[in-house]
Amino acid sequence: MFASDPPDPVRYWPLADLVVRTPRLELRPDDDAGLAALADRAIDGVHPADEMPFLEPWTDDAGNPGFARGILQYAWRCRAEIEPTRWSVNFLVRDAGRVIGMQTLAATDFGILGEVRSGSWLTRSVQGRGLGTEMRHAVVGLAFDHLGARAARTSAFADNVASRRVSEHLGYTPDGVEHHVRRGRPAMLMRSRLTPETWQRPAWTAEVDGLGPCRELLGAPITR
């Protein structure tokens, strides 16, 4: 019997080797062990019960037995549907090796439109330390400096002051509003847009490794 070579996930799934590093954080596309750790953190709370920062109020199910499983299933679904014309990459955010949140970067027809969208959340125990700003800078830097994006969009409800402050800090400009029903009541969603020219770059530069093999999957130009 001949020993077989160990499996190499990067051969078939290049995102497995992608990493973005900031002064305090490490962002990697979701993996199953990290998702389980994130689900454990989410059970402890993401926001006060009388607030709802998300368009889909998924945190209302935190007390249900299937809540943690739902976080994994959502991430698996996003991962399974990634293709060059439509993708949503959920980066697990780690601080000193501990999973503390999720930062999403998504796009539709990126190779043609050159635009990305972002969304994120942090567990309550680490909020208020500027980490939300740092992780947003990380994916914006990935998009603009490495993928060649021409614009980045995000949105937040009018009463989500923390998220809106992050956007303002980075240099996003208003891009219209939307009206939605949230927990049975009307709510205003504020859209924002950022370009490489308006981005208020931080004093540091994100370190990106493992991106080359991911470009085709993300519909990004192949660099030579």
TrEMBL record:
This is GNAT family N-acetyltransferase. Keywords: Acyltransferase, Transferase. Its EC number is 2.3.-.-. The keyword Translocase does not apply. Gene3D superfamilies: 3.40.630.30. Residues 41-195 form the N-acetyltransferase domain. PANTHER family: RIBOSOMAL-PROTEIN-SERINE ACETYLTRANSFERASE. It holds the Pfam family Acetyltransf_3. PROSITE patterns: GNAT. One of its GO terms (molecular function) is acyltransferase activity.
